[in-house]
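User: Quick sanity check before I run a bigger batch. Here is a single chain. Can you write out its predicted 3D structure?
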Amino acid sequence: MGSQVIREPDMTITVTKTII
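Assistant: Done. Predicted structure follows.
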């Protein structure tokens, strides 16, 4: 799923999860 699990804004995490 998401390899990069860092404390970033929800928008960044959501985009990363959607792309991956």
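The mean pLDDT is 64.

User: Great, the batch can go ahead then.
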